[in-house]
Amino acid sequence: MAKPNRETTTETLILSLQRRYPEKGFLIHPAVSFCFSHGTDADADAGGMGVMARERIQKDDVLLVIPEAVRFSTPNVLLCTSRNDNHNHQAMRAMNKKLLQTCSQWQNYFDPQEISLTVSVMHVLRRKSSPHIYSDEDPFVLQAATWPSEEDMKESSMFYWDASKVKEILNQSLLTSNFERRQKVLREIFDGAVLPLLKRDADNFIDSNLSTLAAGSNNDDDDMNGKSEETALWRTFLYAFSLVWSRTHGSPDPELIPLIELFNGNSDRVRNHPNRGSKKDTIINVDLTRGMWPFMRGPMFRDDCNLACSAVYANRDIDKGEELIISYGDLSAGNFMLKYGAVPENLISHHDAKIQMEVSLWCDPSLIPSLDPQDLRVQCLRNRGCPLEEFKSNKWCICDLNADESALELLRCNGQETDAIKHMRQFLILAVLADDEELHRNIATDLIRGRLYAQRVVPLMCQMVDYNLEMLAPGTNATSTEDAKQARHPDTPPWKKAALWARIEYRESLMQWRHAFAKQGTNIHVEDRLEGCAICGRTYPCLKCSRCKEVRYCSRGHQKLDWKNHKIQCVK
Domain SET: where (predicted)? Predict the structure, then answer.
């Protein structure tokens, strides 16, 4: 019952905006329909509110215009509060300033502005749960009524997921580390910054519609002035932050734009390459822009009345019944999972999508020498600052491989290494290959004659990737094809679907790096298997040459790229 009711609350918000801006500032195209969606291939929520085209829409039609004054931002919420209670407004301004200062220590994980906006959301949720203290025309309370329930967010927010179950899918990977660290840091922010500021005025920030009493708290002493009040604040904070985290898209000043935030989205990686695929098949069919009223066509506007607005327009012709999909930025499947709690299937299977994300390589323990301090290898490695104990216990990774496609191409085509790869190669030479003469020379000069070991180190680099592929799904023979089949199964829960799609991308990213290492080996006459796509090494999706059935590619684009070389060997 709760999900269909969001259609009603959305309609109420639209009517309120039409009354507030009858001539200037607000516009909605008659072909735009907000409705409950059961999920599409590009639907980030796999079910929930969606925006559909009830009639055919032409390219550059302006579909929705929202004035800046009703964007859900911390300054706008504070301004709205000042109209009703100036004393409370001043207190919230002071609290917000202190909150931003305190949260700066965690800015490597979360933007302090997002925490500030979360507290504003908590305040509005409190007003929403107490109808007697807000106006029927309060735009922020009306917007809050369109949001998914706490139960819905438990499916689509990583902050509600069971970390132990997620780790069973992602295992030893950078994804697991990022997932666990973000969950932990969010709790640290609440305990260290949010709770100390809000506990004196908790009633103004607790959503009474949430089931706020702590599970199992039956003691009379554990009332709203004690532990259960803290639990209620945490519950509201977690719900509010999950909304903010999944509905802001990396802008310098985070905000929730009413109605626009209800559009489902996808990564820019599914935008078709101009030389591959048809423009009419582009999954992302609408774009967001900013300007002044009125908007004319597409992103073009004319400043008639100094009224700042956001607008959504069609970037191509859109057929009747098609879902309107907006861009969420250039996100990998793994980052999409962490941000939105889901992964659109076509982010993995789209013919032109780049399957590549940042990965980390943990060191194969069999490649680490004994920790005897008298061992020359150990002395050399410690002189270089290698944390051997941490490598051996998999607490630290030995190499970070970023998602920069140019770095992979430079290695594949020119043998040009990043600093991280260079350090890993030197580690392997000292840990496994170097003889005593080389080790003594390294202790004396801190230099390595890398060319002497160029052929022999390549298999070890491939072995390092193989170890990480095994650690991604230990004790199984899981492949990307099998993971995709499981992710598509209707009985697979949403969190697991997202984790499986992310695992596919992680595996394929490792395979591409392995392919690049192995290809360098073939250039210096080192035999090693070259699996997957002949160009990049991906194993999913897998397309065979239609003539010889021998060579595999991940996409039509890579098949075209390799045809000049392959046609010489290709036979009917």
Answer: 30-329
Task: Give domain status of residue 91, yes or no.
Answer: yes
- φ, ψ at 110 (rounded to 5°): -140, 140
295: β partners: 301
Q: Which residue has the tokens 């992302």?
A: 284
Q: Which residues pair with 286 in a beta bridge?
A: 314
Q: Where are the beta strands (DSSP E) in 342-492?
A: 359-361, 399-401
CATH number assigned to the domain comprising residue 330: 2.170.270.10
pLDDT digits (tens, 9 = 90+) for 227-246: 789 999 999 999 999 999 99
Look at residue 536 and tell me if it is in a domain: no
Burial class of residue 74 (count of CB atoms within 10 Å of its CB; 0-12, 13-18, 19+)? buried
How buried is residue 375: exposed, middle or buried, by Cβ count under 10 Å (0-12/13-18/19+)?
A: middle
The proportion of the chain whose per-residue pLDDT surpasses 90, expressed as a percent, equals 66
Distance CA 419, CA 421 (A): 6
Q: What are phi and psi of 37, to 5 degrees?
A: -115, 140
Separation between Cα atoms, residue 13 and residue 24, nearest integer Å:
17
Q: ω before 252 within 30° of 0 (cis)?
A: no
Average of per-residue pLDDT across 101-122: 95
Distances in Å between the alpha carbon of 60 and those of 203, 308, 313?
A: 47, 20, 6
Count of other CB atoms within 10 angstroms of residue 502:
29
Q: Does residue 479 sit in helix, strand or coil?
A: coil
Helix, strand or coil, per DSSP, at residue 543: strand
Q: What is the CA radius of gyration of the chain?
A: 27
For residue 79, give every residue at least 6 positions away whose Cβ sits within 8 Å of its Cβ, in sequence order, or none. Answer: none
CB 459 within 8 A of CB 528: yes
Is the same domain home to 331 and 364? no
Cβ count near 440 (within 10 Å): 14
23 contact partners, CB below 8 Å, separation of at least 6? none
Lowest pLDDT segment from 91-95, 252-256, 532-536: 532-536
Q: Which residues contact 208 (CB under 8 A, 6 or more apart)?
A: 126, 129, 130
Beta bridge partners of 65: 27, 311
Q: Which of 156, 159, 152, 153 is nearest to 178 (CA)?
A: 159
* Helix extents (H) in 357-435: 376-383, 388-392, 405-414, 419-428
- Which are the contacts of 548, defined by CB distance < 8 A and separation ≥ 6? 569, 570, 571, 572
- One domain, residues 302 and 280: yes
> Alpha-carbon distance 143 to 180, whole Å?
31
CB 37 within 8 A of CB 220: no
User: Which domain does 481 fall in, by range?
Assistant: 359-531
Same domain, 371 and 391: yes
Q: Using CA atoms, how far apart are residues 254 and 245, in angstroms rounded to an integer?
A: 9
Helices 436-445, 376-383: inter-axial angle, 10-degree rounding: 30
Shared domain for 364 and 467, answered yes or no, is: yes
CA distance 469 to 208: 47
pLDDT tens digit string along 185-216?
Answer: 999 999 999 999 999 989 989 998 885 443 33
- 368 and 471 share one domain: yes
Residue with tokens 């106006």: 135
Examine the domain organization and report whether 398 and 525 are in the same domain.
yes
